[in-house]
Amino acid sequence: MVTRSPGFMARARRLLAGADGRRFIAGVVLLVVILYGQSLYGMATASGRLDPSLRDATKPSNVVVVLSFMPDRFHNERVAEYGTFAGRDGALNRLRLRHVSPDNLRALAGVSWVSRIEPMK
Description:
Largest sheet: 4 strands, antiparallel
Distance between the termini: 67 Å
CATH topology of the largest domain: Alpha-Beta Plaits
Structural class: alpha+beta
CATH architecture of the largest domain: 2-Layer Sandwich
Strand content: 15-25%
Order of helices and strands: HHHEHEEHE
CATH class of the largest domain: Alpha Beta
Number of domains: 2
Shape: elongated
């Protein structure tokens, strides 16, 4: 068992409250934001991306994934992981997906660079 002197916690608190401690804490926060910020933002805003008619889906759906930019190959491949890629829906930034499961719909809505997910007409 490790015993600490009574002044240990006081010294630790002073160290964290000082300039070095604030820099350390700021660095930790920065690392968390860099590593998890995009996925946390995606999860927090996912409900706004998913069309209301798709929120309570119980079976696979055919959808149009709308991006606010022209997608690169990476984006096309990443979107295709959630369903069967079925081409474009008019514009290059509107991707058709078929047979997207309800779990994949929610996961796709959590991708921060997806603008909207609409039902395919």
